[in-house]
Amino acid sequence: MSKILLVDDDTELTHLLSEVLSLSGFCVDIANNGQEALDKLKQDYSLILLDVMMPVLNGIETLKQIRQQSNIPVMMLTARGEDIDKVLGLELGADDYLPKPFNDRELVARIKAILRRSEGNYPEPAENTTTQKEDDNWLYFDELRLHTGHQQTFYKTQELFLTASEYSLLEALILSKGEPITRETLSMHVLGKPLSPFDRSIDMHMSNLRKKLPPRENRLPWFKTLRGRGYLLIRE
């Protein structure tokens, strides 16, 4: 059973959400501020639901500290219209965000989508000359090695600590066999939701991924942005 840490100072909301998530098959633990959430990180959680506006330590500062020690999936809960919180959260490594008020079914669906990614439930790579599949757990491209079971990414011998969304984005682009992928397709694959107008989540995850990937030996960039179309993995 997946264990979720729900972090929000609204006790009435946490009580209601705890019941909803429990009925959906999740084990739920609650923290009412960011510091309390950090103190609970020693426990093994599958995902953190993190509100932005909280006393003691707000969600943005809490996320900063979480990312210093863990790549656990994090979904931010933001006030509707607070775009700056969404952008900051994504820049700091949040996997997704959900504006309040939200539909219970959408929350559960989005949580399940993140957990599917973090647990490594991905399509099998196609056979081709550039992407090699040594066994059921490893996927190769150039000097990159992706362990699909453990959600780990390596460049040569160096481990790259990617979030679940960044990992899923990288894998989708590798599996594309050099074909462009639209932002709409990536949104469904990476975030489990349709791309909405003015939604820059995929672009923010791509920016974070680019920052974490080391320079290639052939000096080529890893990806190309296709204006109005999406993204393309650059092969040799």
From TrEMBL:
PROSITE patterns: OMPR_PHOB, RESPONSE_REGULATORY
Keywords per UniProt: Cytoplasm, DNA-binding, Phosphoprotein, Transcription, Transcription regulation, Two-component regulatory system
Keyword Transcription regulation: yes
GO biological process: regulation of DNA-templated transcription
Domain OmpR/PhoB-type, residue spans: 136-235
Highest taxon in the source lineage: Bacteria
InterPro entries: CheY-like_superfamily, CpxR-like_REC, OmpR/PhoB-type_DNA-bd, Sig_transdc_resp-reg_C-effctor, Sig_transdc_resp-reg_receiver, WalR-like, WH-like_DNA-bd_sf
SUPFAM superfamilies (UniProt xref): C-terminal effector domain of the bipartite response regulators, CheY-like
Localization per Swiss-Prot or TrEMBL: Cytoplasm
GO molecular function: phosphorelay response regulator activity; transcription cis-regulatory region binding
Matches recorded under Gene3D superfamilies: 3.40.50.2300, 6.10.250.690, Winged helix-like DNA-binding domain superfamily/Winged helix DNA-binding domain
Residues covered by the Response regulatory domain: 3-115
GO cellular component entries: cytosol; protein-DNA complex
DNA-binding region: 136-235
4-aspartylphosphate modifications at: D51
UniProt keyword annotation of Cell inner membrane present: no
PANTHER family per the UniProt record, alphabetical: REGULATOR OF RPOS, TRANSCRIPTIONAL REGULATORY PROTEIN CPXR
Full protein name: DNA-binding response regulator
Native species: Rodentibacter genomosp. 1
